[in-house]
Amino acid sequence: MHSERLKELGIELPPVAAPVAAYVPAVKSGDHIYTSGQLPFVDGSLPATGQVGAEVTPEQGYDLARIAALNAVAAAAEVAGGVDNIEQIVKVNGFVASAADFGGQPGVINGASEVLGEIFGDAGVHARAAVGVAELPLDAPVEVEIIVRVRG
Fold it and tell me: What 8-state DSSP symbol labels residue 143?
């Protein structure tokens, strides 16, 4: 299943990031789990800060979106009782802190979408929004939230 695919890809889901405000990382409602926006934390810190197209390159943004998506999968998997209980990635919302003249948000959020496809295959194909914003919490360059469907 998905846990085997993670091993094949050499990906280890990170520990669920502690909330930085008054919320929980993920909530289950019916057969769906909604994650809070996940920042690209690695071992409790952000590898880069600032706006994509200024302090952060689009390539760095792509890599950070990938990390944020893995953090979102970890949050969903914790509520689902494991990654193998995730049946489908339904929706991805990606936010990119963007310099005023930067319009490459879809390419940055591809970092999230592509890693979800690598892990979940056809079940990783999802609807998506890639939104440019002026600023994100803690000066993070990207934030990703996902909605997943879980096994009954």
Answer: E
Which residue type, as a one-letter code, is found at position 53? G
Mean per-residue pLDDT pooled into runs of 10, the chain (152 residues) = 90 86 92 97 96 98 98 97 97 98 98 98 97 97 98 78
In DSSP notation, 34-72 reads EEPPB---BTTB-S--S-BTTTB-HHHHHHHHHHHHHHH
Of the CATH numbers 3.40.50.300, 3.30.300.30, 3.30.720.120, 3.30.1330.40, which one belongs to the domain with range 2-150? Answer: 3.30.1330.40
3-class DSSP assignment, residue 24: coil
Domain boundaries in the chain? Answer: 2-150
Q: Which amino acid is at 59?
A: E
| pTM for the predicted model, two decimal places | 0.95
Helix (H) or strand (E) holding 109: helix 105-120
Whole-number Cα distances in Å, 29 to 69, 81, 143, 149, 152:
20, 14, 22, 10, 11
Distance CA 52, CA 141 (A): 6
Instruction: Say which DSSP state 14 is in.
Output: P
- Residues 39 and 136: beta-carbon distance below 8 Å: yes
Identify the three-state secondary structure at position 138. Answer: helix
